[in-house]
Structure formats: structure tokens, C-alpha cells
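WARN no homologs supplied; continuing
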Amino acid sequence: MSDANWNACLAFVLAAEGGYVDDPLDPGGATNMGITLQELSQWRHAAVTKADVQALGRDEAAAIYRTNYWNATRCADLPAGVDLMVFDAAVNNGCGRAARFLQHAVGATADGSIGPATLAAVTADKGAAVIAEIAAAREVFYRSLASFGHFGVGWLARLREARVLAERLAG
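OK structure emitted
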């Protein structure tokens, strides 16, 4: 386990998140590369504007993703492919939910924090099965959301693409 897939996983997330948007139906509001105004404010420890979000650079977005999502969900400690599924779920669904998706998939206690017991359970399972379980859980979650009618097609397309890449990374 290592950061070997970091660049591929980051590239996937950045492509899936796209550029600047400010969809009135998105509770995140102004977003660039998936980074919201609120998250950028927290990262910079200062209030930011929509213009600041729009001007966000790739390097800063990557630093936010590495710290707040990749490291927070211990992706460097996960098998290839599983790392992408957990990272993408953390970005799109929140770190706690991503951890619970993984924990359910491997039969660990679903406490929303990836620790030694979860990591031990992950290494005992096969990557393809874990990837499939996480994908299934994410789809159920998306379909449960009131905003599925507006965003669902995109979410499911992203999930399919994530699963394909994750399976490729898993070998």
C-alpha cells in the first residue's frame, strides 16, 4: 500500500468535478474543481468570495484533496482500486460516509473512521469485491437523495467511471 495511485485518483476526481459552477440546486453553492466556497474559506482560514473560488488553482485544490480527503480516509493504506473508490466517495459523499461504505463492504464496525480494525479487514478481502460493494452502496445512497432527479444521471455516470478505473487499478 502506498501513494502510488494518488495521481491517477486525483486526476479522476478533478475530471469528474470539473471547473467552476454555481448551480442554485447544489447546496455547496459556488464550487471549482469540487472545492466549495465554505471549504476554501476553511482551508485558507479566511473568508473567500465566489471570485476566489473561481480563481482556485489546481495545486491548491490538490493540496486540499490530499489533506482533507485522501489522508483523512487513509487511502494510501488501501489496496489499489479500493483507494479510488474511497477517495471519490469521500469527495462526493463525505469522509465519514466513505469510511462507512468501506466498513460495510469489509464487515468492519461502521463507525465512520478508518482505523487499524478497518484496515485489517480490508487486507483480508479481495479488491474487486470491495469495489463492487462500495459502488452498490453509493448507488443506493444517491437514489435516496431528494436531489437525485436533478443530479442522479451525473452521479451514476461518475460512479460507473470510478468503478471501471478502480477495477483497472486493482488489476
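The mean pLDDT is 94.
OK
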